[in-house]
Design a protein that fits this description.
By secondary structure, this protein is α+β, with helices and mostly antiparallel strands. It folds into five domains: 4-91, 3-Layer(aba) Sandwich (GIY-YIG endonuclease), CATH 3.40.1440; 102-201, no CATH class; 253-368, Nucleotidyltransferase, domain 5, CATH 3.30.420; 398-554, UvrC, RNAse H endonuclease domain (Nucleotidyltransferase, domain 5), CATH 3.30.420.340; 563-614, 5' to 3' exonuclease, C-terminal subdomain (DNA polymerase, domain 1, Orthogonal Bundle), CATH 1.10.150.20. It contains 19 helices and 21 strands. Strands 14, 15, 16, 17, 18, 19, 20 and 21 form an eight-stranded mixed beta sheet that branches. Strands 4, 8, 9, 10, 11, 12 and 13 form a seven-stranded mixed beta sheet that branches. The longest helix has 43 residues, at 349-391. It is globular and about 90 Å long.
Length: 615
């Protein structure tokens, strides 16, 4: 039994992160502290200054744990990671988890390439971005290759010069073929310098060159070439227009503002790189109860920049971050960037105007998405509340559903799907291959699956093993009625667990009609969101089981034929299937075709050929 008063006495006066758990062992809040002893004790001391949110959260705390760090900066980084992983309900949460593309120029190579990249690494390459549109990045890279004929291959140059023929890009005039020595390293490097200027926003030189080439081709009556230069000219002009010049400072800056209504908020970011606005993006936020502008800004900055590789030199914020955290956040961002990063709240001038524009965009998106957010809430958390009312339960967060799939007992499998807050949590899905049951016995198979699931979970809670089974459901949902529910209750009783169990009952047409709970069938309004959620869960458990069973069946069928041929082991079986794609095509292949497959020789090819004609 966790004794909060006793555990409070043991708290160290050191920096770290604390995690608050409720009676279902769900993490409901994550915070950091410069002194764990002082910070955590404050939650449990009577104080008039506590918000209603804090009082509600404290009333739900069953236990807490903490992780000691060497510094407050380490605590901040760990706090960001834990919030992202556990998504505690009392923390302000960033809903979106986006990654941004970059254009990478491998200037550290003798013959550099221009590549699409999702990561920004500390290497010898030059990175441009981040950009908000992957499509725009790919279009820009394609344009650069047409303009400057930059290679795309992975050949090691200059070592591999002349070893292979030039690729298709050379023949379509999109590569200068350094792999053949058709361009010197100095001339190729000059083209790369022009690429860097282009990516830096210097479009004048290329626009003048394209216009001159277009006119020259037209004068020679080479209208096809002139048209191609015209298309390139239009493409460059389009890119030049999208990178709007904001100011002459030329710094990398992000402008961040938000609009909120109740717990829903939209944060808008304008990305400015080298004085140009290269894009914008918006993020949906769920605001923790009682959190004000300073808390919202603080949480967004920490969560967003914890997962973004590029850190600008300056952040312009609509509101100040929490005063006690500002210096620490700047230190953290400076360390990530490798150069000084500062936070400002502009009050007047061009920067304040930009902030107003960002806030206006956030407000527009919030208005646009409000109905969609409400529909999603009804579909998820609203549906769970309907389920709670139907069953007379409360606090349902995690729902687990199970199903069995087999054909006449062949390759029987079980599936476990997980829903949290009405949404599928696919990372927690699990598959089971039935080991102890012979023949088509769904009840015995379900008993094996449930026993393995909860024994595994209990052992994880005792630290005896790992595997993601340690979180138990608030409700167990069985695919079936009285029989499957009885199996589940028997397993739970044998293991000393108390978890509500309901059955999802189907009619003769295999459609969900009711829930079986505590010995009776509870009819459901088929127009309700609760009914739709139950149907989705049941269908998902069935789909997941069928999908797994089909994959096992398929591999077993391949095994039963090819592995029965003398001289055909796993490597040759895979090679044959990759080469021919199906057993039918292997059956129809001649000896020479079979022999040409990887790993095959004449004896193996002859064995396969004879097997299909003699069997």
């Amino acid at each position: 039994m966790f004794d909060i008063e006793e555990e409070l006495k043991k708290l160290p006066e050191k920096p770290g992160v604390y995690l608050m758990h409720d009676d279902k062992d769900e993490i409901i809040y994550v915070g950091k502290a410069i002194s764990l002893k002082n910070r955590v004790r404050q939650y449990f001391q009577s104080s008039r200054g506590k918000t209603a949110k804090i009082n509600r959260m404290v009333s739900r705390i069953a236990r807490f744990e903490y992780i000691v760090t060497d510094s407050e900066l380490e605590a901040l980084v760990l706090e960001c990671n834990l919030i992202k992983e556990h998504k505690p309900r009392y923390n302000t949460m960033l809903k979106d988890d986006k990654s941004y593309p970059y254009i990478k120029v491998t200037v550290g190579e003798p013959f550099p390439r221009v590549l699409f990249s999702r990561d920004m690494k500390r290497d010898k390459s030059r990175y441009f971005g981040p950009y908000t549109s992957a499509g725009a990045v790919k279009d820009s890279i394609g344009l650069i290759r047409k303009l400057y004929k930059i290679r795309t291959c992975n050949r090691r140059l200059p070592e591999d010069i002349g070893k292979e023929r030039p690729c298709l890009n050379y023949h379509i005039r999109q590569c200068s073929a350094p792999c053949q020595g058709y361009i010197s390293q100095e001339a190729y490097r000059e083209s790369i310098g022009q690429v860097l200027d282009f990516l830096g926003g210097n479009y004048d030189a290329v626009l003048k060159r394209l216009e001159s080439q277009m006119k020259e081709a037209a004068e020679k009556l080479d209208f096809e070439t002139a048209a191609s230069f015209r298309e390139l000219l239009f493409s460059v002009q389009k890119i030049a227009q999208t990178q709007k010049i904001i100011e002459d400072g030329g710094e990398d800056r992000d402008v961040i503002a938000y609009a909120a209504e109740g717990p829903d908020a939209v944060v808008e970011i304008f990305f400015m790189r080298e004085g140009k606005m290269i894009g914008r993006d918006s993020f949906h936020l769920t605001i923790g109860e009682g959190d004000g502008p300073a808390q919202v800004m603080t949480q967004f900055v920490k969560q967003f920049y914890a997962g973004t590789p590029f850190i600008p030199r300056t952040l312009f914020l609509q509101h100040e971050v929490l005063p006690e955290e500002r210096e620490l956040i700047e230190e953290w961002l400076t360390k990530k960037r490798g150069q000084k990063v500062s936070i400002h709240v502009p009050k007047k001038g061009e920067k304040a105007r930009l902030m107003e524009m960002a806030e206006k965009n956030a407000r527009i998106i919030l208005e646009r998405d409000r109905e969609k957010i409400k529909r999603e809430e009804l579909r998820t958390t609203g549906a769970v509340k309907e389920l709670e009312e139907l069953l007379g339960l409360s606090g349902l967060v995690r729902l687990e559903a199970f199903d069995i799939s087999n054909i006449s007992g062949f390759q029987a499998v079980g599936s476990m799907v997980v829903y949290e807050y009405g949404r599928p949590k696919r990372a927690d899905y699990r598959k089971f291959r039935i080991k102890t049951v012979k023949g088509p016995d769904d009840y015995a198979s379900m008993e094996e699956v449930l026993t393995r699931r909860f024994v595994h979970g209990k052992e994880e809670r005792q630290g005896l093993r790992t595997g993601g089974f340690d979180r138990f459901p608030d409700l167990l949902m069985m695919d079936g009625g009285r029989g499957q529910v009885s199996v589940a209750k028997r397993v739970l009783e044998n293991l000393g667990l108390s978890i509500p169990v309901c059955g999802m009952v189907k009619d003769d047409s295999h459609r969900t009609r009711a829930l079986y709970f505590e010995g009776e069938e509870l009819p459901i309004d088929k127009r309700s969101e609760g009914f739709r959620l139950i149907t989705r869960i049941q269908d998902e458990a069935h789909r997941f089981a069928i999908e797994y069973h089909r994959s096992l069946r398929s591999s077993a069928q391949v095994h039963s034929v090819l592995d029965d041929i003398k001289g055909i082991g796993p490597a040759r079986r895979k090679a044959l299937m990759r080469t021919f794609g199906s057993l039918e095509k292997i059956r129809e292949a001649g000896i020479e075709e079979l022999k040409a497959a990887p790993s095959m020789n004449e004896a193996a090819a002859m064995a396969v050929y004879r097997f299909f004609r003699e069997s």
